């Protein structure tokens, strides 16, 4: 896929696991053919960016065992809770469910032709469950043998189709995928995602498309999920993240060394996190020195930024350096667990096209400031130097702290206040500096 900073390639490691030697091979390819880093995505995949020669990169990845074959590449993403084998709080084994579904889908004659973003979430619960993942199809463990099958949403928001035993899940999910695929070719309007098919056909008809036996309906409410975890956790290992999801060369080497020494595989988690099983305190210090983040609320977790000046001809600002420098001016805005501060080289918004709490949009060496909007929405302030943008950001931080209500995200606070009120409050804050 072409991007403003060169070609990008997304990779799906089998079972969301990578061992030390495979990571070393990938790191070498990133240095030789891309921008040197490996990126974590929000859907638990890996990405190489800044690729100069896509054919040579693909050949190198294939030789290193990193490319999927054509049949597997056509399968939908399966976002799994990848550590149910070691997480003592897990409810059920997600990996076996994933392996059965993968085998059933890849063993069929016809190649699936599904939308790129079509995804199945397989959530065995526990400390590393995937409750926040919005998927077309969700499987949520209810107990050791029963799973809820649901569509179009997260663990909390998906619409339940009922409860199935683990050994009947593969047939139910493949039937649902087949129904979606058939609807896509059955004439207009074709559903683009499962939510469209749900709106058209309703939950009852979708449930009837899945072969019985369904299990007891009263079991069909999964437990609520906790917030994503970070840091060291007994019995699991170390959960880490990186600013912008970018794992640089030093960190890749440190992680690969640790995995090889312990004979372990890293596990990819949604929201650009990684579990390093059985990592110890020595590994943690080295990882932090290489840029790993492991403290919940760290404002660098909520940053998004494109490559900026030097990597894209459209950019006139050093987006990532500015984002890192400015994050400290708005720690609760940036560190609230969503994209809080987006620094974009221009209104195209390659790093994050959707609304963030605050978006700085580069223009002529300075920034426009969009609050509670996407990069191409009208700014609250225009053409500010970096220092002035930082001052507005600090004012927004104080407004957020003073005005937030229980459970409200920074984006929701700023949306509730609205443009006029935000301008009034900001002027008062800046006048009082
Ligand atoms: S957002 Fe604009 S400046 Fe940044 S990479 Fe995309 S096109 Fe380039």
TrEMBL record:
Pfam families: NIR_SIR_ferr
Keywords: 4Fe-4S, Heme, Iron, Iron-sulfur, Metal-binding, Oxidoreductase
Annotated Nitrite/Sulfite reductase ferredoxin-like domain residues: 5-56
Matching InterPro entries: NIR_SIR_4Fe-4S, NiRdtase/SiRdtase_haem-b_fer, Nit/Sulf_reduc_fer-like_dom_sf, NO2/SO3_Rdtase_4Fe4S_sf
Keyword Cell membrane: no
Keyword Heme: yes
GO molecular function annotation: 4 iron, 4 sulfur cluster binding; metal ion binding; oxidoreductase activity
Signal peptide: none
PANTHER family in the record: BLR3264 PROTEIN, FERREDOXIN--NITRITE REDUCTASE, CHLOROPLASTIC
Protein name: Nitrite/Sulfite reductase ferredoxin-like domain-containing protein
Protein species of origin: Salinisphaera orenii MK-B5
